[in-house]
């Protein structure tokens, strides 16, 4: 039953984020850009900020680990993207989000 509880928690979190305006679903294109699934608008890593992220770990199966990112783009578009966590992770999503994180760290360093 633990897996069902975790799924419910993830569904509840996605509903909460949706209520907070994170309504778009994203994917990463072969060209390494973030793409909104509903209108094909794409964003470079410089146009995206990670607002928050949430990890979900399967109690019975380590392959059930996932991470959900809440993202905001420079044009105000807000949405989410999820990925497996660990060896089953989508390398394109990971590479894009690492670029976003690195850019955010550089911005934070200049603000000091």
Shape: globular
Summarize the biggest pleated sheet: 6 strands, mixed
How many domains? 1
Q: In sequence order, what are the helices and strands, one letter per element?
A: HEEEEEEH
Protein name: Phosphoribosylpyrophosphate synthetase
SSE order and pairing:
Blueprint lengths: L1 H18 L4 E5 L5 E3 L5 E2 L4 E9 L9 E8 L4 E7 L6 H20 L2
What are the key terms here?
112 residues, single chain, Phosphoribosylpyrophosphate synthetase, alpha+beta, globular, 30% strand
Can you offer a commentary on this structure?
- With 112 residues, this protein is α+β, with helices and mostly antiparallel strands.
- It has one domain (2-100).
- The protein contains two helices and six strands, in the order H-E-E-E-E-E-E-H.
- The longest helix is centred in the C-terminal third of the chain and has 20 residues, at 91-110.
- The protein is globular, with a radius of gyration of 15 Å.
- It starts with a helix and ends with a helix.
- The model has no long low-confidence stretch (mean pLDDT 85).
- This is Phosphoribosylpyrophosphate synthetase.
Short description:
This protein has 112 residues and is α+β, with helices and mostly antiparallel strands. It has helices at 2-19, 91-110, and strands at 24-28, 34-36, 42-43, 48-56, 66-73, 78-84.
